[in-house]
Specification:
The chain is an all-alpha fold. Helix content is 66%, strand content 2%. It has a two-stranded antiparallel sheet with strand order 1-2. A hairpin with an 8-residue loop joins strand 1 and strand 2. Helix 1 runs antiparallel to helix 2, helix 1 crosses helix 7 and helix 5 packs antiparallel against helix 6. The termini are far apart.
């Protein structure tokens, strides 16, 4: 899936779950984190060609395993004594949720996602649409349409409020 699809879907789902603003923003960031982490790992190579080779070797590997992202969500609520504060918990939950939504969306593509954290051989795929295909863009259009249908009036209110708010 393209980044825009990952981010739009994560934001839509975060809104549907009534996450606070910090959680929605973090979900948008978390929605691309698996790919960003893969790019950072590939950036360790000394040459551009080497980086692409490493990226191809690591992409949709351990960073695309659902367990890591479920653990981030669980830590946000389950770890006692974690001194994050309410906003910190919202951000951590949003990041985990965004990463989890990324993995679920990549599960829809033929390349799939790993079933175990350190293996690229056991993958699960629903093979519903390819990255960048018409099917992906139709899916994105449906997500945007549903968000507008359910949250359009609220989003307009927030936008108008922000437009009239004087900051500094």
């Amino acid at each position: 899936m393209k980044w825009i699809t990952h981010q739009a879907t994560a934001v839509a789902a975060a809104l549907a779950l009534h996450l606070p603003v910090a959680g929605v923003a973090a979900a948008c960031v978390g929605a691309v984190m698996p790919d960003v982490l893969d790019q950072r790992m590939a950036g360790l190579a000394p040459t551009r060609r080497g980086r692409q080779k490493i990226f191809n070797a690591v992409h949709r590997g351990t960073t695309h395993w659902f367990g890591w992202w479920l653990a981030v969500c669980a830590v946000a609520f389950a770890v006692p004594g974690l001194q994050l504060g309410p906003m910190g918990r919202d951000v951590l939950m949003g990041l985990g949720f965004g990463g989890l939504s990324h993995v679920v969306l990549d599960m829809l593509t033929p390349s799939g996602v790993p079933l175990t954290p350190f293996s690229r051989s056991n993958k699960f795929s629903l093979k519903l649409c390819s990255t960048g295909s018409l099917g992906e863009y139709c899916f994105l259009l449906c997500v945007v349409g549903l968000v507008w249908w359910f949250y359009g009036a609220d989003l307009l209110k927030v936008t108008r409020h922000l437009a009239h708010t004087k900051i500094l």
